[in-house]
């Protein structure tokens, strides 16, 4: 995962392609080629979102979960405290049973999959390997929403590391509940922030989908990491990172601009210890993870004008074979939505990124969070 030692990779910040030449890099985790084409970009420092997600001033967004809200939520928002009766059924809340809750996990009112459907009688992928490929199964699964704060004007980047840790531990609790069912094969946690990133509600929330199959992108990622491990004898995410792509390191996590980032200013937050499953996280690591996650979101917001973004937790399938554990390493990916995906990317599976990750990491390191 270390960047190539070419003169172009070693070049400093620069702007809009100064000192940079077009380059192709292969991502050893997702197994895809990325074209870095700085001639297609403005200066990296000018690569900002043209329409920030929120228009609330920082002075009215700094209330924590315990401090109350300073702005009036829209009357139609069912995620705000006091509007619980307008939501789909609740699964659990923190604190349990409290009227003054800090977060809630609820069913999605418009689920992609339905828990009421009959689960598959057998593993569809096992049948496929036996030659009788099963292409249609009932739409069984789980689709939940994590309401991250009771207050409409508070965003994930406003929360403390401890408050964010509670959200991460809620993910873990739901992971364990779904894993105990025995018929869920993969659990995807994701967050859409901003309408252009797919968020239908502006109140801060994230989502969890439990699937009865392992998605093809997950299988492809594991194959790619297995091939990398077979060539080097090391997990691709356990390697020592080049200082050029490190944004920040905490006790348990590293945040990097991946060397073959598919998107401008893409960030990965990676456990420094080799861990295959997200739900292995404990409270101490969750607080540390919460701190580095909110710091990365603040750096993106300040550097890129509060852009829409997605984040996804890339973990291992439930019931992963023990032989896969040495190369399976979970991480969180943050993608600011700064440019669309076009026909070339859709047709080829290759991506064009106008910002070298070394430049993105440098600009994100330079953000002054004390102001």
UniProtKB/TrEMBL annotation:
The keyword Zinc is annotated on this UniProt entry:
yes
What are the positions of the active site? Answer: 205
Q: Which Gene3D superfamilies match?
A: HIT-like
Name assigned to this protein = Galactose-1-phosphate uridyl transferase N-terminal domain-containing protein
What is the originating organism of this protein? Spirodela intermedia
Q: Which domain of life is it from?
A: Eukaryota
The Polar residues compositionally biased stretches are 47-64
Q: How is the cofactor bound?
A: Binds 1 zinc ion per subunit.
């Amino acid at each position: 995962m270390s960047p190539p030692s070419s003169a172009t990779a070693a070049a400093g910040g620069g702007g809009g392609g100064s000192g940079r030449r077009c380059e192709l890099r292969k991502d050893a985790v997702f197994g895809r080629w990325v074209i870095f084409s700085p001639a297609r970009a403005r200066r990296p420092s000018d690569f900002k979102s043209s329409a920030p997600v929120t228009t609330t001033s920082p002075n009215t967004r700094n209330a924590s979960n315990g401090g109350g809200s300073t702005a009036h939520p829209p009357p139609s928002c069912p995620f705000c405290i006091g509007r619980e009766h307008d939501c789909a059924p609740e699964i659990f809340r923190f604190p349990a049973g409290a009227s003054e809750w800090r977060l809630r996990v609820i069913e999605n009112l418009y689920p992609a999959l339905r828990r009421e459907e009959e689960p598959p009688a057998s593993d569809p992928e096992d049948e496929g390997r036996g030659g009788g490929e099963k292409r249609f199964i009932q739409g069984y699964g789980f689709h939940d929403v994590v309401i991250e704060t009771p207050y409409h004007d508070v965003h994930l980047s406003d929360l403390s590391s401890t408050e964010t840790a509670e959200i991460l531990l809620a993910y873990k609790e739901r992971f364990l509940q779904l894993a105990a069912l025995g018929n869920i094969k993969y659990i995807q946690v994701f967050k859409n922030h901003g309408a252009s990133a797919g968020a239908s509600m502006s109140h801060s929330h994230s989502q969890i989908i439990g699937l009865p199959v392992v998605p093809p992108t997950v299988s492809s990622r594991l194959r790619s990491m297995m091939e990398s491990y077979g060539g080097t004898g090391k997990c691709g995410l356990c390697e020592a990172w080049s200082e050029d792509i490190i944004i920040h390191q905490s006790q348990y996590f590293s945040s990097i601009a991946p060397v073959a980032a598919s998107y401008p200013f893409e960030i990965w937050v990676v456990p420094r210890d080799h861990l295959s499953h997200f739900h292995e996280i404990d409270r101490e690591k969750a607080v540390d993870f919460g701190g580095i996650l909110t710091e990365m979101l603040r750096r993106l917001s300040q550097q890129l004008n509060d852009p829409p973004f997605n984040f996804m937790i890339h973990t291992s399938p439930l019931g992963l074979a023990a032989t896969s554990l040495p190369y399976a390493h979970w991480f969180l990916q943050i993608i600011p939505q700064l440019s669309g995906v076009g026909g070339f990317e859709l047709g080829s599976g290759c991506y064009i990124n106008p910002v070298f990750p070394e430049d993105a990491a440098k600009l994100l390191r330079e953000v002054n969070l004390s102001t």
